[in-house]
Design a protein that fits this description.
327 residues; alpha/beta; Rossmann fold; six-stranded mixed β-sheet; 36% helix; globular
Length: 327
């Protein structure tokens, strides 16, 4: 009976393991002629990134962001601590087949054309030529590079923005499960940044995990599921944007039409009137405000919870710890 009951009992749905896990990760560089000078780049970093997340790592220049990313990729060996990538120890060769990487300052073989470079990258992953012929044009279209330019123009003739685009294409050549991007918006004009944002969002829609560093906080705020701030080698905060940026007093921004001016002024501060209605910051409880609107035959159009911008939060976190940005 027990065995039958066990078979009939509903099985618990197990959530997938984290894609990235670090535990007390530490990195110390030795410098100087006698290698007797020490610089600690990472100080006990512990974080997790779940499958399908777009995770943004923020911090001033010299904070240790690139060191952390390169450690996860197995390019840099940690001094102590441990890390797992896709459930396996970092540095395993089999894992590298499943990830994509765009460095901050990539160096490419500048005598190759863009098409030849992508063929070279595909060859490293042993992607068949038949698959390459389909995938390379798709990636060029995705990153916004003309196929004719990719076929004829050598990489040494590319602008910084074009190099960033071809770098993004090579990071995706193997259709990776996890994509690591180090300053992906670097060198791009506003149109290029928008296109890069759309590429990242399309990868997100495919269920891929994206881990990236960036100084462009406005873009991070639009893209990321969660963020972490790294400063002087330490993770000083980590969480979702809603958790980190929410207003402590739960203030709301309201928009509406109609109503009595005198009554509205007692409920909405910094109220502004326009042709399509009024808007401002709500004072008091939302439920009581809604009841008041009904009594004076006014209509609420929208109510949004106010929160700080990511830039304001970022600077506040650094200032509270006496850290000055080096950017």
């Amino acid at each position: 009976m027990d065995s039958i009951a066990n078979k009939l009992a509903p099985t618990a749905t197990l959530s997938p393991p984290p894609v990235v896990e670090t535990y007390e990760l530490r990195k110390v560089y030795r410098l100087g002629f006698w290698m007797n000078q020490k610089i600690t780049s990472l100080k006990g970093c512990t974080l997790t990134v779940q499958q399908g997340e777009t995770f943004g790592l923020l911090g001033p220049n010299g904070a240790g962001k690139t060191t952390l990313l390169k450690t996860l990729l197995g390019i840099v060996r940690p001094t102590s601590g441990r890390a797992l990538l896709l459930g396996r120890p970092i540095g395993e060769r089999s894992i590298k087949q499943r990830i994509g990487y765009l460095p901050e300052n990539p160096y490419f073989y500048d005598f190759l054309t863009g098409w030849e470079f992508l063929q070279f990258a595909a060859g490293l992953f042993k992607i068949p030529a038949s698959v390459q012929r389909q995938r390379i044009p798709q990636l060029l279209d995705l990153v916004g590079l003309e196929r004719s330019a990719a076929l004829k123009k050598q990489l040494r003739q590319y602008s910084k923005g074009m190099l960033q685009r071809i770098g993004m294409a090579q990071a995706l050549i193997n259709d990776p499960e996890v994509v690591f991007l180090d300053e992906p918006m670097s060198g791009l004009d506003p149109m290029g940044r928008r296109q890069m944002r759309e590429i990242i969002l399309s990868l997100q829609a495919q269920g891929k995990t994206i881990f990236f560093n960036s100084h462009v906080l406005a873009e991070v705020e639009q893209i990321c599921s969660r963020i972490a701030i790294l400063a002087q080698g330490e993770l000083i905060c980590i969480g979702s944007l809603d958790e980190l940026l929410k207003s402590p007093d739960k203030s709301y921004y309201v928009k509406g039409i109609g109503g009595n001016l005198e009554i509205l002024n007692s409920w909405v501060t910094d109220i502004k009137f326009e042709e399509d209605g009024w808007h401002g910051k709500l004072l008091g409880e939302p439920q009581e405000f809604l009841a008041t609107l009904r009594l004076m035959d006014a209509q609420l159009i929208s109510m949004q919870l106010l929160r700080a911008s990511l830039e304001e939060f970022f600077m506040q976190q650094l200032q509270q710890r006496g850290i000055r940005s080096n950017s």
